[in-house]
Design a protein that fits this description.
321 residues, alpha/beta, six-stranded mixed β-sheet, five-stranded mixed β-sheet, 9 helices, 13 strands
Length: 321
């Protein structure tokens, strides 16, 4: 059948605690599966938590600032690797429950951290996309990725794919994904603000695909309690989080949405509501909109415009024979 049930997780992780967050993720995935989900989507950097101190805490960008350095060390220690046991555990859950899992995570790769999203399918697919352009202060902690993960992901009903946050404002990145003929697109955000919802709805119409826009609900208390759950002696790191002003109670408001190819909203979450958002989509309706708009096909002008995309891996160091 061309229908799919999508569930978007909005509940926050156990902030910066990778082990506890993975336990929470499993509970949430199992709950969504019991409720009929075919796909379970988590927001940007859900493992082990979006680095909100970059936006909220004074001093996060100061050179040689001991609290910022200590907190980065804690973050680095709690970032999973693609081939590590945490992602392997999610793959096992996907196979056991026959559910597709889309997880936003801060990926430790070598000595750097990447903002990544991994898709794990019941058939054993493990697809990865790494954010090609961190935004503004995110560049303090995340590396920029090459184009090797811009390749399409095969799906039961056709290609699926993902972009992360402000990649949705990159016209050539969008054009690359539209060329792949996505039937379903995962738009991962820290929270789906009005601006982010605008970008997600625009993407759905421009690409004539369904969009699952995922955001987290996160409070200042979630941040501090998650850190404290680590039970580590890192007082300097905690100072960085304590610097988030007390009046900033709701740091991320969720706001997730599931959007149709005509840009209408199928389902959306209320601001601050951490409940899982679920809805079904019918991929059979995709052809209707493509009668009018196919930006990679009959609505393109290849005689005028040409885009070349380099999907080769680009390591910083190449050892030649």
């Amino acid at each position: 059948m061309p229908t799919m049930s999508i569930s978007i997780i909005q509940r926050p992780p156990v902030f910066l605690n990778l082990t506890a967050s993975l336990d929470r993720a499993e509970l949430l995935i199992r709950e969504a599966s019991r409720n009929g989900a075919d796909v379970v989507v988590f927001p940007e950097a859900w493992l082990p938590g979006y680095p909100v101190w970059l936006d909220e805490a004074p001093g996060s960008a100061l050179w040689g600032h001991a609290p910022a350095e200590a907190l980065f060390r804690v973050l680095f220690d709690n970032c999973p690797q693609l081939e590590g046991p945490e992602i392997a555990r999610l793959a096992e859950i996907a196979a056991e429950l026959s559910v597709e899992i889309v997880m936003g995570f801060q990926e430790r790769l070598g000595s750097s951290i990447y903002n990544s999203v991994v898709r794990l399918t019941p058939a054993g697919w493990r697809d990865i996309h790494r954010k090609i352009m961190p935004t503004h202060n995110e560049r303090l902690i995340w590396a920029t990725a090459d184009g090797s993960t811009l390749r399409p992901w095969p799906g039961i009903h056709g290609p699926v794919g993902a972009l992360i946050c402000w990649e949705h404002w990159m016209p050539l990145a969008r054009a690359t994904k539209h060329q792949q003929g996505e039937v379903l697109h995962y738009a991962l955000w820290p929270a789906v603000t009005e601006l982010h919802l605008l970008a997600s709805r625009h993407y759905a119409f421009e690409g004539q695909c369904f969009v699952a826009a995922a955001g987290t609900v996160l409070t200042r208390s979630d941040v501090l309690e998650g850190f404290d759950s680590l039970k580590i002696d890192e007082s300097a790191a905690r100072l960085m989080l304590e610097a988030i002003p007390n009046d900033r109670l709701l740091l991320k408001a969720g706001g997730s949405a599931i959007i149709a190819p005509d840009a209408t909203i199928i389902a959306s979450a209320k601001e601050g509501d951490a409940a899982t958002l679920s809805a079904s989509i019918d991929t059979a309706m995709l052809a209707e909109g493509r009668l009018y708009l196919d930006t990679a096909g009959h609505y393109s002008r290849p005689d005028i415009f040409e885009l070349q995309v380099d999907t080769r891996e680009r390591p910083g160091v190449k050892i030649l024979p």
